Amino acid sequence: MAKITTVRLLLAIAATKNWLLEQLDVNNTFLHGDLYEEVFMEVPKGVIPPKPSQVCKLRKSLYGLKQASRQWYEKLSTILIASGYTQSQSNLSLFTKQSATGAFTVILVYVDDMILTENDAQEIALVKSQLHHLFKIKDLGQLNFFSWIRSC
Amino acid sequence: MDPQIKLHSKESPLLEDISMYRRLIGQLIYLTNTRPDICFAVNHLSQFLSIPTMTHYQATLRVLRYLKANPGLGLFFPSGSPLQLKGFCDSDWASCPETRHSVTSFCIFFGDSLISWQSKKQNTVSRSSSQAEYRALASTTCEIQWLSYLLHDLHIVPQATAILFCDNKSALHLAANTVFHERSKHIEIHAMWLEKRFVMVFFVYSLSTLSHRLLTSIHTQVVLTSAVQDEFN
Predict the structure, then answer these.
(1) pTM (2 decimals)?
(2) Do B103 and B42 form a contact (C-beta atoms < 8 A)?
(3) Which of A37, B5, B213, B226 fits a 20 to 30 Å CA distance from B102?
């Protein structure tokens, strides 16, 4: 979870440095996580199991599981680190990347909301398409509402 | 909150609908994410969540009336402000009537943008106001240090060393001089923080600033602009 102070600091820096601010939202966030434990669930209503008294075994994470948010975080951080991002040790939901072209990208994650900051307008489309390739993301355009902040 | 009123835990009839009070405080805590002006009041009122009384409820309603009168206040992050961390800290010595703990408050600016603030009861009793101020200095330094690590991770090089303002001379002398005396040796842990010198500590004569407002209540209208720190520039 991003500490709120980090969000404010990032917004202050972006305002000072004239960085672009974009907001992204991941679709079906908690379905992305992998599951390491054996979890069973009752067959949902409307589905008729081949044999009575059968249950479902989960292969991937599902909303409502207590490990759902943790598995999502693990998935996201592994993928971001693998695609060249550096995780900040002061705030584990802050990821930065310095590309060879000089563009600097910051991703701040708040559960499934992401703030994307970039100092290069051309690079931002590239980063978005990369992220879209990894997860299905909803592009909310320029930062408007983030959790509790309405930025204008 | 009315500054004349000191809230106690048992002084008036207990509130019937306790969960309503708790919900209200929860919502106010959420609001402090963008409203540092109610930070002190909310911190103070949230100390009575277990046994709220009518007095506490009325004080909460007063906060709500204040909010209703000033709904549009928020934070302003100007462009082109300097890349430097600036902190203001203060403490209210032994202000809790029941435990006699002091209250730390600080606010930290990045350039002209207010990014971090706190109003929090200290977890130990201070025997003198300089001790209380010194503890406030130490916890503000902690926060500034964390922020400077974050800035480093964001590849931001500050234009100058972080500055911390404090209005207590003896706390500043303690911060400048690491020799310990009998009366100050038990606050050595805090001193170890300050000794690392992440910040330059300065004296200001009057903290008529936000940090002071985080200690006092919202009796008067507070307008949050960066103008409040102009006198220190």
Answers:
(1) 0.81
(2) no
(3) B226
| ipTM metric | 0.84
Of A8, A88, A104, the CB nearest to B115: A8
CB B50 within 8 A of CB B125: no
Query: Strands B199-203, B162-166: parallel, antiparallel or unpaired by DSSP?
Result: parallel
Q: For residues A96 and A116, give the distance between their C-alpha atoms in angstroms, rounded to a whole number.
A: 10
Six-digit token string for A95: 């990821």
Residues from chain A that touch B113, judged by Cβ atoms under 8 A, are: 8, 11-12, 15-16
Residues sharing a CB contact under 8 Å with residue B87, sequence separation 6 or more, in sequence order: B106, B107, B108, B109, B140, B141, B143, B144, B162, B163, B164, B165, B199
Q: Hey, what CATH topology would domain B85-232 get?
A: Nucleotidyltransferase; domain 5 (3.30.420)
Q: Is A16 on the interface with B (CB under 8 A)?
A: yes
Q: Which residues contact B228 (CB under 8 A, 6 or more apart)?
A: B208, B209, B210
Do the beta carbons of residue B173 and residue B51 sit within 8 Å?
A: no
Strands annotated E in B139-193: 162-166
For residue B14 the two structure tokens come to: 């207990």
The token duo for B186 is: 């038990």
CATH number reported for the structural domain that contains residue A76 in this entry:
3.30.70
User: What one-character-per-residue DSSP string does A16-49 give?
Assistant: HHT-EEEEEEETTGGGS-B--S--EEPPPTTPPP
């911060």: which residue's tokens? B175
